[in-house]
Design a protein that fits this description.
Blueprint: H1 2-12, H2 18-26, H3 29-44, H4 46-49, E1 51-55, E2 58-62, H5 72-92, H6 97-107, H7 112-127, H8 130-141, E3 147-150, E4 166-170, E5 175-179, E6 187-188, E7 199-208, E8 211-221, E9 234-238, E10 254-258, E11 261-264, E12 273-275, E13 281-283, H9 293-323, E14 325-326, E15 336-337, H10 342-377, H11 384-412, H12 424-431, H13 441-459, H14 475-480, H15 494-516, H16 522-528, H17 530-553, H18 562-580, H19 582-587, H20 593-610, H21 614-619, H22 625-628, H23 639-647, H24 661-677
The structure holds ligand LGGBLMCM and flavin-adenine dinucleotide.
Length: 678
C-alpha cells in the first residue's frame, strides 16, 4: 500500500499540466485521442492483450509479462491469431490508416503484418509505376496477398550493390528468371518471409542480353494462394530463434532460395528503370537512388519508434526510482527514494530528455520526408541527398541511444530490472536489432560523413549549403568564434548552445576534410579516417536534434507550465551531450575547461529543477500498464506485492519438488548422507 502513496505524492509535485503535455507528446490533440483510445481498446480486449495457448489443461491465457516464459512455436501461432483478429477489427470497424497503425503498435508484438504494411506496401508505392500500383496495392491493402521485403542475403546486407540474386530477362517468353546462384545469395532475414508471406519484393541483379544493370526490385509470388505450399523452384523457411525470450521471436524472419523461377516481365518494379518486350533496358529520368526510397521511408519512421521505446524504459525506471528506497533512514523513518540520488538523476534525466528530443526530431523528420517526397513527385530531386543523409544519421543516432538507454534503465532498476517481469529485458531484446536493420548504424553514419565531406568540398566553389547543413554557410565565423559563456546560467541561452554545437560540428567536419586531402586516393583516406568521420557525422546529427528541439520551443506551445518543462528538458539534452562529448568541444577550441565546468554545474541545477516533475513527465507519455508490460513501471507503483505474486507464476514454481529431483538431486543428497554417516 505504501508504494501507491509514493507515486500519488510524486504526482502532486508536478509544476505543469500533465494532460496538456500528453497532447504535446502525441503531436496533436487528434493524435493523442487516437492513441489514447486505441491503447485502451487493446488493453481492455483479452483477444489483443492476452496470449492464449493450448495445453493439456485446455486453452490457457497468459499476460504480456508472462510472454517470455512461452515456447516460440506457441507464441508464433498466437501472433498469427492476434494479427488475424486485429485485421478483422480494422476492417469491421473501418479504422483509418492512422488508427490501424496505432492498433498494431499497441498490440506490441513484431509480426508479419508489420513487414507487409510497413515495408512491402511502401516499396511498391515507391518503386512501382502507376499501372503496377493499380494492380498490386488493392490486393495488398485487402490482404489478399501478404508480402515482405527481401533485400538482404546471407552474404550481403549493408552492401546492397553486392547482392548476388539474379533476374535474367528471357525475351522468348517475356519473363524474368529469378535465380540464387550461390549459397551466399540466399535471401536471409526478411521479416514475414519464413512462414507467412505469399509474395516478396525481391532485390536482384537485373540482366538483359548478358549485361548486368545492377540491383532492381521484383514482385515474386512465393507460396500458393490455395494451400500455402512454396511454389516450384522456391525453398523457403524460418532462419531460427533470435536473441531473448519472446521479443522478436514472434516474427518469422526467413531464408529464401530460387531455382530458375519465372515471373512475368511486368513484375519488375519499373519506376526507376524499365525493360521492354524486346529486352531493351531503359533508365527513367528519375535518380537511381529512388530504388532505395523505401529504406528512407522506414528510417524516418524508426525515429518516432525510438522515442516510443525509450519513453517506455524511462517511464518504468522513473516510476520505480520513485518507489524504490535505499539507505538514509533516520530514527526509524523512511529510507531515501533512489530518484533523489544525484547519480541516479544524472543517468535517468538525460534519458527522459532524450525521449522528448527524439519525439520532436521524429515529428520534424516526418514533415521533411513528406516535403521531399512531394518535391520528388514534381521531379525536383534537389533535396534527396539531404533527406538520405538526415534519415540515415538520425535513425542511427536515435536507435543507438535508445538501445543503450533501455539497458541503462535496466541498471537503474537494480536487480529487479533483470527480471523479465520488469519488462526491460524483453524491451531491450526486441528493440536492439533496430541498430542493425534498415542499415547498420555505423554504415549509416558513414553515409552522413560522405554527405558532409561533399558539402565541405563544395563550399569553396561558392555553393550555398541549405537546410540542415545551412550552418556550414557560416564557416568563417564558426571556425574562429569562441564561447562567450561567463557563468553557469549563460548555458541556458539557446544561442549559446546552438553556436557550440554548430562550431563543434563544423570544426570536426573541416578537420576530417583536411586530413582526407592529404591522401592521394580519397577512398583509401575515407577508410583510414572512418572512425573520425563517424564522430564528425554524429556531431552533425546531434546538432540537428538539438536545433529541432530549440525550434520546437519557438513555437506557440499552450498549457500551464509546459514550455518551462520543455525548456528544462531541452537544456538537459544539450548540456548532457556537451558534458559527454566534452573532449570534442575542448579539442576543437570552442570552449575552455572552465566553460565546460559551468555546463556541468548548470546541468546539476537542471536535474534539481526536473526532479519534482519527473514522474509526471513520464506519465505524459500516456503509456497504459498493458503497453508497458512491467511490474516495476505500474502506474499505481504497487511494485512489491505484484513482484511477489508474479514469482509464483513461474513454471518452476508449479511444484515444490522440481522435475529432475529424483534423477539428479536425490542421489547427491544420499551420497552426502552416506558420507556423513561414515
Ligand atoms: C517496421 C520496421 C521493420 C524493419 C524491418 C527491417 C527491414 C530491413 O532491414 S530492409 C534492408 C535494409 N538494408 C539496408 O538498409 C542496407 C544498407 N545499405 C544501403 O543502404 C546502401 O547499400 C548504402 C547506402 C550503404 C551504400 O549504397 P551504395 O549504392 O553502395 O553506395 P554509395 O555509398 O556509393 O551511394 C551512391 C549514392 O547514392 C546515395 N544514396 C545511398 N542510399 C541512398 C538513399 N537511400 N536515398 C538516396 N540516396 C542514397 C549516396 O549518398 C551516394 O550519393 P552520391 O555521393 O551523391 O553519389
Ligand atoms: C531483426 C532483423 C530484421 C530484419 N528485417 C529485414 C527485412 O525485412 N528485409 C531485409 O532485406 N533485411 C532485413 N534485415 C537485415 C538487415 O537489414 C541487415 O542485417 C542490415 O542491413 C545489416 O547488414 P549486415 O547484416 O550485412 O551487416 P554487415 O554489413 O555484415 O555488418 C557487420 C559489421 O561490419 C561493419 N561494416 C559493414 N560495412 C562496413 C563499412 N563499409 N565500413 C565500416 N564498417 C562496416 C558494420 O558496422 C558491422 O559492425 C533484418 C535484420 C534484423 C536483425
Amino acid at each position: 500500500m505504501e508504494s501507491i502513496d509514493y507515486l500519488a505524492e510524486e504526482r502532486k509535485k508536478a509544476e505543469f499540466n500533465v494532460d496538456e503535455m500528453k497532447i504535446v507528446w502525441a503531436g496533436s490533440r487528434r493524435a493523442f485521442e487516437v492513441s489514447d483510445y486505441i491503447s485502451k481498446l487493446v488493453a481492455d480486449d483479452p483477444d489483443l492483450s492476452f496470449i492464449f495457448i493450448e495445453c493439456h489443461r485446455g486453452i490457457q491465457g497468459f499476460s504480456k509479462e508472462e510472454r517470455t516464459m512461452l515456447p516460440r512455436k506457441e507464441l508464433f501461432k498466437n501472433t498469427l491469431r492476434k494479427s488475424a483478429y486485429s485485421w478483422k477489427h480494422i476492417i469491421d470497424h473501418q479504422l483509418s490508416e492512422e488508427e490501424a497503425e496505432r492498433l498494431r503498435y499497441f498490440v506490441d508484438e513484431p509480426a508479419f503484418i508489420d513487414s507487409h504494411l510497413g515495408v512491402f506496401i511502401p516499396a511498391i508505392k515507391g518503386q512501382g509505376t502507376k499501372e503496377q500500383l493499380k494492380k498490386w496495392l488493392p490486393l495488398a491493402y485487402k490482404m489478399q496477398i501478404i508480402g515482405c521485403y527481401a533485400q538482404t542475403e546471407l552474404g550481403h546486407g549493408s552492401n546492397v550493390q553486392g547482392l548476388e540474386t539474379t533476374a535474367t530477362f528471357d525475351p522468348r517468353t517475356d519473363e524474368f528468371v529469378i535465380h540464387s546462384p550461390t549459397l551466399t545469395s540466399s535471401k536471409w532475414w526478411p521479416g514475414g518471409l519464413g512462414k507467412v508471406s505469399t509474395h516478396a519484393i525481391v532485390y536482384a541483379r537485373l540482366i538483359t542480353d548478358g549485361k548486368d544493370h545492377g540491383i532492381n526490385g521484383f514482385i515474386v509470388q512465393l507460396r500458393s494462394l490455395e494451400d500455402h505450399k512454396p511454389l516450384p523452384g522456391i525453398t523457403v523457411g524460418d532462419i531460427g530463434t533470435k536473441f531473448g525470450n519472446g521479443a522478436y521471436n514472434t516474427m518469422d524472419n526467413g531464408v529464401l532460395r530460387f531455382d530458375h523461377v519465372r515471373i512475368p516481365r511486368d513484375q519488375m518494379l519499373m519506376r526507376v528503370a524499365q525493360v521492354t518486350k524486346d529486352g531493351k533496358y531503359v533508365q527513367s529520368d528519375v535518380p537511381r537512388q529512388l530504388l532505395y526510397e523505401s529504406m528512407v521511408y522506414t528510417r524516418q519512421a524508426l525515429v518516432t519508434y525510438a522515442s516510443g521505446a525509450l519513453s517506455r524504459a524511462v517511464c518504468i525506471a522513473t516510476r520505480y526510482s520513485a518507489v524504490r528506497r535505499q539507505f538514509g533512514s533516520q530514527n526509524g523513518g523512511q529510507e531515501i527514494q533512489v530518484i533523489d540520488y544525484k547519480t541516479q538523476q544524472s543517468r535517468l534525466f538525460p534519458l527522459l530528455a532524450s525521449a522528448y528530443a527524439f519525439r520532436f526530431v521524429g515529428e520534424w523528420l516526418k514533415w521533411f520526408y513528406t516535403d521531399v517526397t512531394q518535391r520528388l513527385q514534381a521531379n525536383d530531386f534537389s533535396t534527396l541527398p539531404e533527406l538520405h543523409a538526415t534519415t540515415a544519421g538520425i535513425k542511427s543516432l536515435t536507435t543507438t541511444a535508445t538501445a543503450d538507454g533501455i539497458e541503462e534503465c535496466r541498471k537503474l532498476c537494480g536487480g529487479h530490472g533483470y527480471l523479465c517481469s520488469s519488462g526491460l529485458p524483453e524491451l531491450y531484446a526486441v528493440y536492439v536489432p533496430a541498430c542493425t536493420f534498415e542499415g547498420d548504424n555505423v554504415v549509416l553514419l558513414l553515409q552522413v560523413a560522405r554527405f558532409l565531406m561533399k558539402t565541405v568540398s563544395q563550399l569553396s566553389s561558392g555553393k550555398k549549403p541549405t537546410g540542415t547543413i545551412a550552418y556550414m554557410g557560416k564557416i568563417e565565423h564558426l571556425m574562429q568564434c569562441r564561447s562567450d559563456v561567463e557563468q553557469a546560467k549563460d548555458w541556458l541561452k539557446p544561442s549559446a548552445i546552438l553556436e557550440a554545437f554548430e562550431a563543434r560540428a563544423t570544426r570536426m567536419s573541416v578537420a576530417c576534410a583536411q586530413s582526407l586531402s592529404k591522401f592521394d586516393n580519397p577512398e583509401e583516406g575515407f577508410q583510414e579516417l572512418a572512425p573520425d568521420l563517424v564522430e564528425a557525422a554524429l556531431a552533425h546529427c546531434q546538432l540537428i536534434v538539438v536545433s529541432k528541439f530549440i525550434e520546437k520551443l519557438q513555437q506557440d506551445i499552450p498549457g500551464e507550465g509546459i514550455k518551462q518543462q520543455l525548456e528544462v528538458l531541452c537544456c538537459i539534452y544539450a548540456l548532457f551531450l556537451l558534458h559527454k562529448h566534452h573532449g570534442d568541444f575542448l579539442v576543437t577550441g570552442y570552449i575552455t575547461s572552465k566553460q565546460g565546468l559551468f555546463a556541468n554545474e548548470q546541468l546539476r541545477a537542471l536535474y534539481t529543477q526536473v526532479r519534482p516533475n519527473a514522474v509526471s513527465l513520464a506519465d505524459a507519455f500516456n503509456h497504459t500498464d498493458h503497453f508497458l508490460g512491467s511490474i516495476l513501471g505500474r502506474y499505481d507503483g504497487n511494485v512489491y506485492p505484484k513482484l511477489y505474486e508474479a514469482a509464483w507464476k513461474d513454471p518452476l514454481n508449479e511444484s515444490d519438488v522440481p522435475d529432475g529431483f529424483d534423477e539428479y538431486i536425490r542421489p547427491l543428497l544420499k551420497q552426502q548422507l552416506q558420507t556423513a554417516r561414515l
